[in-house]
Amino acid sequence: MRQRLAPMLFDDTDKQAAEALRASVVAQAQRSPAAITKQTTGLTEDGLPVHSFRSLLADLATVARNTIITAITPDHPLTVMTRPTPIQHKAFDLLGVGCSQ
Known about the structure:
The protein has 101 residues and is mainly α. The protein has 5 helices and 2 strands. The longest helix has 10 residues, at 86-95. It is rod-shaped, with a radius of gyration of 20 Å. It starts with a helix and ends in a 6-residue tail after the last helix.
């Protein structure tokens, strides 16, 4: 899950570029230019805020599904879901989970 969400997280998604910056295998690991850009701007490539894994999960936890039964039609419950935010929509796309918007 974390690997699929990596483009939205502070995680380094361009390991090859980071490895190319290392002088040797025993040298300290370097971050790729893409990871440094995410860290300094606080934005992903598509302009969304960068999250930690924990803060992204907290954001996704706000999606709600409610089943409503009215007195007029008690035999026909209505299911209402919150509309996902752009951040939630992107996360669901990366995870391959369908969401209605």
